[in-house]
Amino acid sequence: MPQSLSKARRQTLLQMESLLGSECYNANIQNYGPGGVREAEGRSFRYPIMLRAADGSTTKVRDSVIPPTATDEMVRSGYYAFGANQLDVMAGLEKILWYLEKHHGLVVRDAPQE
Question: What SS3 class is residue 61?
């Protein structure tokens, strides 16, 4: 069983995924404002992340917040579905954190309590 995530590591992963998932853009989406007036082409959007539960079921998170009820295993399982393909984004982000810690001295710690 994988080690549980510290509060700081979990929060860092969630913030990094939110930043990454919010960088999607589709130039073919048509935008219409009040009264049906066409404003511009293209739109940025938050790409939905899929979370796997221990029982194999999946949950699609459409907004920018993975719920606090998601277990560490669910967070680690997060992926983006691209048709028949998937990008295991949370596993990739965790590998990036490990790399930065090992090779660049990054320290992920809880914020000081006020």
Answer: strand
One-letter identity of residue 54: A
Cβ neighbourhood burial of 94 (10 Å; 0-12, 13-18, 19+): buried
Helix (H) or strand (E) holding 48: none
Residues 40-56 have pLDDT tens digits of 777 888 899 999 999 99
Closest among 96, 89, 104, 69 to 9, alpha carbons compared: 96
Domain ranges of the chain: 7-21+43-104
- What number of other Cβ atoms are within 10 A of residue 14's Cβ? 20
* Cα–Cα distances in angstroms (integers) from residue 56 to residues 5, 50, 53, 93, 112, in the given order: 21, 12, 5, 22, 37
- Alpha carbons within 13 A on the beta-carbon side of 35: 2
User: Average pLDDT, stretch 76-84?
Assistant: 95
- Residues 98, 92: Cα–Cα separation, whole Å: 10
